[in-house]
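[SOLVED] Predicted holo structure with zinc ion

Edit: marking solved, answer below. Original request kept for reference. I posted the sequence and ligand SMILES and asked for the 3D complex as structure tokens.
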Amino acid sequence: MRYLSKAEIMATEARCIYCTALHTTVEHMPPISMFRGRKRPDGLVFAGCAACNNGTGAADLVAGFIARLSPRYDQASWQIEEAKARAGILEAQAPGFLGEFFDPLQRTTEWFPTASGIRRPLTVVRLSGPLTRAYLDVFAAKLGMALYRHHCGHPLPLGGFVMCGAYLNAGLAPDTAKALLSIMPDQSGLRQGRRNHADDQFIYRFNTDGRSVVAALAQFHDGLYVSASAFRTTDPYGQLPLLPNHRRVQPGDLPGMMPYRSRLRAVQRLPLVKRAGPSPS
Ligand SMILES: [Zn+2]
């Protein structure tokens, strides 16, 4: 499958891939900030409206931060260094998230076996904080709608929906992962030629009929997994069961799913527009 160029996207797309608004921006999914040093191979570039694109930027930041936090990364690794360097911008755009995410009450220590058979303690973070959940739900839904556009050739219709969920490194139960992977025969990522790929930072397995449904499980770095399935119609098989820790999202839902303080900050960052008012008499 060929990726569309940015010019082709702006000229030929009918609307934002996340809602019915006219597209005014180019949306990268996964976002540029997900990649090391913001070096992102081309591809998976879409049409987006400003409200969806800019309005969900904090969700991209949170996902990129969490993806870089894995117990398998050394404290001096570039992943952890990049995560630390983002504390300031995270606090500005996703106020309260860091405090919630690092809340000691959300963590437990569990012992995991290593390759050598020796067990070592790892901190397990529970994804129960409302802010963290909200940001990751938005991010997961965006991925589902983007992959639907990519594999099915048109934006997800208004009557369609995404069933999506996100897991931290240790949170994806092996049984769930196996069940999801078993129905996904194909694998893809972002690749330009043989050498320029970022498979260590983003890769996904998927299944699709190429026109009305796509199911995918994506891995971001070592810290974040996203499961997202997008369906053209509301409920194609009668009553589709909701997978554990998943939710349904429809086109147009995204900006409203963002935490309130994040929405407020996004509005505050918009450039002030001077309007011509009535001239003083
Ligand atoms: Zn939109």
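OP edit: The mean pLDDT is 85. Thanks to everyone who chimed in.
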